[in-house]
């Protein structure tokens, strides 16, 4: 089942931009004003997580504010959050914890239902824990508290395995899968797993998050927030990404972030066999959102005979001519990245696995 339609469009605004991983003081940001601006541009789908502390709290307050609720009916919004991940190295996928997390999210958003709830970074827990958490979300869907159930994580192939196992074991498929850093100018390997996700997994829609690879694919490198440098990219990849950014800038004043976003949105729209190609954008400020929306509009186009208003939701079709015109720049960046094309880091990494092993031995 696919929660996206003409009322939501092809774009989601991600909430990580209001997390301590990304910025030093998220509470100082004008969140309500920023969300209202995003809504005025046609963005209707929003994604966050309790793990993106304090993003869910800040977004919940914004979406509960009368200044927003009087303008935008709840039925016009697509609110997505996650559950199960507590901190960088702590997870709780137990059914009581999953239920408590969802109920807390409902309270934070002052809503009677959430459109999508994902298990957060599902590859970090055992399959039995993952199945138990998803079973609980299915129960809450049957109770009307959740409209769609999803799983999220880093490696698309692992997510496909889990989606297939859920369908085979629980007798129903997850509606949405969210993966990140696997459909961008450095890594397009999500495409290899789409067939299995949609086929054996029965997934309704796949979402592509982190089109800039968590800030790596831009001038200036990865963002450093209150929690320090959390990005797992090794030095070699960082150096090549920086070199590519300098090269793009030298091409008539090009912008690496904008080029990377054009590639991610365009390539996903091109290869997504269901024709959705929904991308989760970053943007914790009005300026960032404006820049990202304008970039999307240069990649997608309005359907002939469709809504001619300047609303992002009406941009649904890949602009093939513009996508092809960017080809030399895309190739130049990928040539510089060279051996790092389609590189993926381990998730979970060796340090996490060792810590979990020690914890089990001590218990």
From TrEMBL:
InterPro entries: AKR (IPR020471), NAD(P)_OxRdtase_dom_sf (IPR036812), NADP_OxRdtase_dom (IPR023210)
One GO term (biological process): dehydro-D-arabinono-1,4-lactone biosynthetic process
Keyword Ligase: no
Name recorded for this polypeptide: NADP-dependent oxidoreductase domain-containing protein
Span of domain NADP-dependent oxidoreductase: 11-303
The keyword Zinc-finger is annotated on this UniProt entry: no
Keywords: Oxidoreductase
One Pfam family, short name: Aldo_ket_red
Chain coiled-coil ranges: none
Lineage start: Eukaryota, Fungi, Dikarya, Ascomycota, Pezizomycotina
GO cellular component labels: cytosol
A GO term, aspect molecular function: D-arabinose 1-dehydrogenase [NAD(P)+] activity
């Amino acid at each position: 089942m696919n929660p996206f339609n003409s009322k939501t469009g092809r774009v989601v605004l991600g909430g990580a931009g209001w997390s301590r991983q990304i910025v030093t003081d998220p509470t100082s940001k004008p969140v309500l004003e920023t969300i209202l601006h995003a809504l005025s541009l046609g963005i209707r789908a929003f994604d966050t997580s309790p793990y993106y502390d304090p993003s869910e709290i800040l977004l919940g307050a914004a979406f509960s504010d009368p200044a927003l609720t009087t303008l935008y009916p709840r039925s016009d919004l697509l609110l997505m959050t996650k559950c199960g991940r507590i901190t960088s190295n702590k997870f709780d996928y137990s059914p009581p914890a999953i239920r408590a997390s969802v109920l807390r999210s409902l309270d934070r958003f002052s809503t009677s239902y959430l459109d999508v709830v994902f298990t957060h970074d599902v590859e970090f827990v055992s399959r039995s824990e993952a199945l138990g958490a998803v079973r609980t979300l299915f129960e809450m869907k049957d109770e009307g508290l959740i409209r769609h159930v999803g799983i999220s994580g880093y490696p698309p192939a692992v997510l496909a395995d889990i989606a297939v196992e859920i369908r085979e074991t629980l007798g129903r498929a997850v509606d949405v899968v969210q993966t990140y850093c696997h459909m961008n100018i450095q890594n397009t390997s999500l495409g290899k797993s789409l067939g299995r996700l949609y086929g054996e997994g029965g997934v309704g829609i796949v979402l592509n998050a982190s089109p800039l690879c968590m800030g790596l694919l831009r001038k200036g490198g990865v963002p450093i927030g209150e929690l320090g440098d959390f990005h797992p990219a090794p030095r070699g990849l960082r150096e090549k990404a920086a070199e590519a950014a300098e090269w793009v800038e030298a091409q008539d004043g090009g912008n690496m972030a904008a080029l990377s976003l054009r590639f991610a949105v365009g390539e996903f729209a091109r290869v997504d066999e269901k024709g959705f190609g929904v991308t989760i954008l970053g943007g914790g400020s009005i300026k960032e959102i404006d820049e990202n929306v304008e970039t999307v509009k240069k990649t997608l186009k309005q359907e002939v005979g469709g809504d001619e208003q300047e609303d992002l939701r009406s941009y649904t079709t890949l602009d093939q001519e513009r996508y092809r015109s960017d080809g030399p720049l895309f190739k130049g960046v990928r040539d510089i990245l060279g051996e790092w094309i389609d590189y993926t880091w381990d998730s979970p990494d060796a340090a996490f696995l060792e810590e979990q092993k020690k914890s089990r031995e001590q218990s």
